[in-house]
Amino acid sequence: MSEMRTEEEQVEAIKQWWKENGKQTVVAAVVVLGGWFGYQGYESQKLEAASSASVVYQELIGLNDSTEEADQGRRTLLLDQLQTQHGDTVYAMFAGLFKAKAAVEANDLDSAKTQLEAVMSDASDAAIKQLATVRLARVLIAQEKADEALSLLAVEPEAAFIAEYEETKGDAFFAKGEKDNARDAYSKAITAAERIGANNPVLKMKLDDLAVAN
Fold first, then answer.
1. Contact 211, 181 (CB under 8 A)
2. Tens-digit pLDDT profile for residues 47-82
3. pTM
4. How confident is the model over 175-199, as pLDDT tens digits?
5. How many CB atoms lie within 10 A of CB 177?
6. DSSP letters of 154-193?
7. pLDDT computed for residue 149 by the predictor
8. Would you tell me how many other CB atoms lie within 10 Å of the CB of residue 55?
9. Of the chain's two ends, which shows fewer C-beta atoms within 10 Å, N or C?
10. In whole angstroms, how large is the CA radius of gyration of the chain?
11. Integer CA distances (angstroms), 59 to 74, 76, 95, in order
12. Per-residue pLDDT reduced to its tens digit, 110-140
């Protein structure tokens, strides 16, 4: 299956999106609910919770590449902490993505599926939801559930995710033996990637392999 690649780049992109757009979403919701003074208290509480979660997340990132057993154990505790104590923050969604990635690497696809389904259900912004969606589709393909993966991807994503959606559709079609559909999806993925200036050599190889096969 396609590997969970460029984890840090995608997480940073999501964090940047949240920085630019998340506050506007919170402001709109709170003003409707309670007016200015209610918002002031709410905003203070949210900022405090987000700050606390950010500290946990930064420690997590610092341990991310360590292979020491003690560090890996601490990393697991931090991931659990983000989900249980900061479940209403975007960092809890990041924790779910990290747990899913680790589960895939351990070939525990059922656990990865559970984590990604939870992120999809709980995420309040499109970027995280779409990232979880395409990763869940990859897990389903690995579980030989290509039709379920295609059903999951049968939506129009934001421009930044079109290439990944189409590539994953191609993987699903290929798994089903539908090479013409796979070729079409890979071609769309390459076009979408070029529009946003992305370069994906693996995707190009997939398309070239289908051309050689014919």
1. no
2. 455 678 888 888 878 877 778 888 788 888 988 888
3. 0.72
4. 999 999 999 999 999 999 999 888 8
5. 9
6. -S---HHHHHHHHHHHHHHHHHTT-HHHHHHHHHHHHHHH
7. 97
8. 11
9. C
10. 19
11. 9, 12, 12
12. 999 999 999 999 988 889 999 999 999 999 9
Residue 36 exposure: Cα atoms within 13 Å on the Cβ side:
0
DSSP state, 98? Answer: H
> Tokens 């393909």, residue?
141
User: Do residues 152 and 125 make contact, with C-beta atoms less than 8 angstroms apart?
Assistant: no
> Could you tell me the sign of the dihedral formed by the alpha carbons of 55, 57, 60, 65, in that order?
negative
CA terminus-to-terminus distance, the chain: 22
Q: Which of 16, 84, 7, 19 is nearest to 53 (CA)?
A: 84
Q: 101 and 115 in contact (C-beta within 8 Å)? A: no
Question: What distance in Å separates the CA atoms of residue 134 and residue 132, rounded to the nearest whole number?
Answer: 6
For residue 199, the 8-state DSSP code is -
User: Any residues with CB less than 8 A from the CB of 77 and at least 6 apart, and which?
Assistant: none
Tokens of 12: 């940073």
Is residue 103 within 8 Å of residue 118, measured between CB atoms? no
Buried-exposed string 109-133: b where 16+ CB fall within 10 A, e elsewhere = bebbbbbbbbbbebbeeebbbbbbb
170 in Cβ contact with 194 (< 8 Å): no
